[in-house]
Amino acid sequence: MSAVLKPKSKAIVCDGNEAAAWAVTLARVDMVAVYPITPQSSLVEYLAKFVADGKLNAEIIDVEGEHSVLSVLHGGTLAGARTYTGTCGPGLAFMFEPYLRTPGLRMPMVMSIVTRDTLTPQSVWGGHQDAMSVREVGWIQMYCETVQEVLDTTIMGYKVAEHRDVMLPVNVCHDGNYLSYGATRVELPSQEEVDAFLPPPATNWHAALDPDRPMAVDPLTGGAGGPGPSMFVRYRKGQCSGMQHALAAIEAAHEDWARIVGRRHAPLVESYRMEDAETALVTLGSMTGAGKDAVDEARDRGERVGLVKMKTYRPFPVQAIAKALSGVKAVGVVDRSVSFGWNCGPLYQDVIGALQFATKRPAAMSFIGGLAGADITTDHFGRVIERTQALAKDGQVGETVWLNEKD
Amino acid sequence: MGAFNTISFLPEHCDGCNACMTACATAKTGAPDVINSRIQIVADGGSFELAMCRQCGDPKCVANCPAAALAKNDADGVIDWDGTKCVNCLLCTVGCAYGGIVHNVAAGHVVKCDTCGGDPICVKACDRGALKYLTTANIYNEVGDLEDLFVPGLAGCQGCNTELIMRHTMRRIGPDTVLATPPGCIPGMGSVGYNGLTGTKVPVFHPLLTNTASMLTGVKRHYKRQGREVNAVALAGDGGASDVGFQSLSGAAERGEQILFICVDNEGYMNTGMQRSSCTPFGAWTSTTPVGERGTGKTQDAKNMPLLMVMHNCEYVATASTAFMEDLYDKLDKAIAASKRGFAYLHIYSPCTTGWRFPSQENIEVARKAVEANFVMLWESNPRDGLQLTRGVEQPLSIAEYLKALGKYRHLSEEQVGHIQATVEKNVSFIKGLAEGRHPSMAQVMAGQA
Q1: How confident is the model at residue B34 (pLDDT cuts 50, 70, 90)?
Q2: Are residues B54 and B80 in the same domain?
Q3: Which of A29, A69, A316, A347 has the fewest CB atoms found within 10 Å of its own CB?
């Protein structure tokens, strides 16, 4: 293994796609399979270049579509490789068949979703609809606010995925356009730091393809009678329990990262100026920055407003969000995607579900913005705050508000 | 003790011309008097029977001999007669049920066939195809001791050709293998298994129907990276290869992945109820191309999968049939070797007794007729030598002779048979043209120069 990185952490300027490629390099990934799609394309170009330049010592496989991207990685993972890819939008849709299978086989891989709005209307711009469409498939989903968080979370993703109590695939979601192309200063950890954080992958002997240890992977399971149905239930229950164990594993990984690399991110939810808040915003992804600015402006005006950022969306940190929002009078949940069946945002649904467990249950309203690359500005957040403050006064939950409708 | 080569007699091809006997007598005595031939063709009503030494495995002639003048030769299986020991008691002729050892007046002692040292002149003299020297015993001798890598009792249909293909191919490929069996008959009969029990002794998995070649890519690349020699092998049906699995197959072939992909072509989705695939031939009944007042079976010709794979410039592509096992094993060996350098694709025809509607005991005969009628052509191709026929296509069996063996063609009109005949002739002309270099531009493409 050639030492390619300087021993000390250093500052670079890069966008989210390059940050993800650096994370893959530092995580000593064995295999990447790639297929380009906007706004992910530069990510796989960086990976190819890093391999060509000798920075990234991995098998890189340029395949003929996203379906094969994930399928190749399934093969690699079952042979014991640490694997990575990234995709979004229509590519994620095309990948769906193997994607669906990944958590059931308990494959500990990391895949970036460079979030993009889904077709149709035809669109190549950012939005969370792609990632949200697969929220119930069984992958862990973490959403990033900044380019730095993209880099750090992608590395932490392996620690979570490969945790013996978890063994599930991780999606690190970073917003198309805003994070994929937005260049900022980023602290690049040293290889030594990352090696200290992330041990080499251990072979996953519950599902592996090795002639030295022959095993049938994924026989038919189920059917009426015999051992099938109960066996199937045990697989499913085990998968759900791995998902719940992920909450602790994510917190532990963030703690280890803070200890070794010296940078701390909130693992499940981040509470921003929530002390004594009467009104709270709930945000996801890169919009959080503008949301925090709007909260600062409101605080400057003496208003008791705070913000809760969702970092981990699957598994949904029910207790953490219930605790964070307990005691506020009203909550405004801002989604960058739509639940077509319920005319609101999907995060909103999850939040009001979790609020069942809050000691004091606030009213909540759904706001949808940032579809297909639209900007959610501090002005938009100002409107969200205003409307949520009205909700705090009268308790009247109104219709879903579409933020960019009249831009 | 191994198996031995043998002379086989096909009475339906014999017309009693006596050429074999003349040749034998001349070779053994210098004169063409057929009474001295070691092979005797005997007229029996309208047909012919063979009286000749079978070189039995448990020879009664040897048991009967009180002088140890007869012995089974362990090297070639021939029962040798030793004139220096023979006491002319003729007890051996009493023991033989085949008229294979008889007293010869001219010689003054018993005579019998010695297979001319493994190059029998009677077979060479027979131009009717009634005598064949079968050398398939080599296969048994070479692979008979290799472990069958599937458990006994796979749940295939009675007389399943696909099960035969699975057991033969994997036995040869060996245990250092990761085997992919996409949904279809192959896992359906229990190779990957049910509820925690498996039917395969090597690492085996269900890929999706769509991603066999891609999953194998990942397996193979990681083992290569680790410096481990592991065969990545697919046993896939024609549906998983030619239809929904074609994209990943094409991608892996184009990238030259070191995979051995075996397509077991039973001309449709036989496991799930006999639906049409793009490998289903014109006119065939399937459950989705049914025959009725307006339905006449499939209305399109089959996709030529192996030829499409040739156009991917694969390291090796070949067609094979279980009716021609020496040819199959020869190609399997080449495919295994080629898969260590690049992509190898083997297309093995597998008549399906259940889905094609014919009695299970006729499976190998159906496979043979398909080849003899040129419905299936046996060839191989690599980028250096181009495409070569491995079996002649002259004097084919009539296509009607093949079609009538199968229930799935029972409804065919004369016009449909004519279409199939024309398609077969076109295919023969095209493939023969490739073999003879009559399509230079194609040859260039195949040689990767286009």
Answers
A1: very high
A2: yes
A3: A316
